[in-house]
Specification:
Layout: E1 4-8, H1 13-21, E2 27-31, H2 41-51, E3 55-58
Parallel strand pairs: 1-2, 1-3
The structure holds NADP nicotinamide-adenine-dinucleotide phosphate.
Length: about 70
Amino acid sequence: MKPAILLIGTNGQVGRELHRMLPRIGEVTALDRAGLDLTQPDEIRRAIRTFHPAYIINAAAYTAVDKA
Ligand SMILES: NC(=O)c1ccc[n+]([C@@H]2O[C@H](COP(=O)([O-])OP(=O)(O)OC[C@H]3O[C@@H](n4cnc5c(N)ncnc54)[C@H](OP(=O)(O)O)[C@@H]3O)[C@@H](O)[C@H]2O)c1
């Protein structure tokens, strides 16, 4: 059985590539910011409790460097 993988930040450049490739090795649940906002700890807890991932891969990041 393939491991459950939770991919966060699936709409970003890295996230899109991972979403394309990860199904080769696991059952992927891919969430964009609407599905899981990393600034909201309750949303992180809820996603982990809901999907029970063996692996969590975070491709989300604050990448607006000039505004950081
Ligand atoms: N691109 C590369 O070649 C490369 C190479 C090495 C390492 N990295 C690293 O990989 C990571 C992602 O880079 P990227 O190029 O894929 O950036 P990106 O295209 O700007 O994607 C970042 C993603 O993060 C999401 N995001 C931002 N804040 C969030 C939040 N609070 N909750 C959930 N999602 C949030 C964005 O959502 P929205 O679309 O809603 O804004 C966006 O989809 C960064 O840490 C970067 O340093 C990238």
